[in-house]
Specification:
Elements lengths: L5 E4 L5 H12 L3 E6 L3 H11 L6 E5 L5 H15 L4 E4 L14 H29 L2 E8 L1 H4 L5 H21 L4 E8 L12 H9 L9 H11 L11 E4 L6
Parallel strand pairs: 1-2, 1-4, 2-3, 4-5, 5-6, 6-7
């Protein structure tokens, strides 16, 4: 029987999701590599995971569709028999001023970033309850705390995770399942590449540490939160942003 813990990372095809997947695999976690688009990136990531002595599962699913989410977790249960860690990393943004934002774009962002988290958590929890153990980490953004021009849908979806996290933490703590949100500042990989250079300079000037975060800094924080060492932490909103928001 495989006694390794199993972690599912949504959005593993992204820069930070890929980094996190490799980090956990290197620390003896079996990993479920999820994507909705760019399956070729998951294939490349899987080849890297193969160098670690762990098992992995590649899954393509639209997390806004309940039947696809249910199928994803069924595949996880079939292969691993359990799920110990769920990291809600998948997310999208469509940036424009609110008065220029089409309703369909608003709904798309909310569906992926907030409804997708709800659906994945809904199907992750029964697997965790079976083992009386679980760690759920929601990935939010400092934009939800400060607000940025043109980010109404993204900021709303990411701030919604705060209420979801706190409520879920109360509902599942009796099953030894702990739920926390990590609020990201600006990192050197990922969505920062979509930000114009002049805005990147402004963000750096407003960050007391005067630099963007490193992926390994995020990975080490999450690794702590999913470990047994964090057994007295649940329902928390934890920032990692270089002082951009205090």
């Amino acid at each position: 029987m495989n006694n390794k813990r199993t972690a599912l990372i949504t959005g593993a095809s992204g820069a930070l999701g890929g980094q996190l997947s490799r980090y956990l695999a290197d620390r003896n976690y079996n990993v479920v590599l999820h994507c909705n688009s760019h399956p070729e990136r998951i294939g490349e990531l899987a080849k890297e995971i193969e160098k670690f002595e762990v098992e992995y599962l590649k899954v393509k699913a639209d997390i806004t569709m309940e039947d696809q989410v249910e199928n994803m977790f069924s595949l996880v249960e079939k292969k691993f028999g359990k799920l110990d860690v769920f990291i809600n990393n998948a997310g999208i943004h469509i940036d424009r001023p609110l008065w220029k934002l089409p309703l369909e774009d608003w709904k798309k962002v909310i569906d992926v970033n907030l409804t997708g988290t709800f659906l994945c958590s809904k199907y992750a929890i029964p697997l965790m309850r079976k083992e009386n153990f679980g760690r759920i980490i929601n990935i939010s953004s400092v934009v939800a705390q400060r607000g940025e021009f043109g980010t109404s849908s993204y900021a709303t979806s990411k701030s919604g995770l705060f209420g979801l996290t706190k409520t879920l933490a109360r509902e599942v703590v009796k099953f030894n399942i702990f739920t926390n949100t990590v609020v990201l500042g600006y990192f050197s990989v990922g969505m920062i590449n979509d930000v114009p250079s002049e805005m990147q300079e402004r963000l750096l000037n407003n960050t007391p540490m005067n630099r963007f975060g490193k992926p390994e800094e995020l990975c080490s924080l999450i690794y702590y939160l999913v470990s047994d060492n964090s057994a007295f932490i649940t329902g928390q909103i934890i920032g990692i942003n270089g002082g951009y928001y205090m």
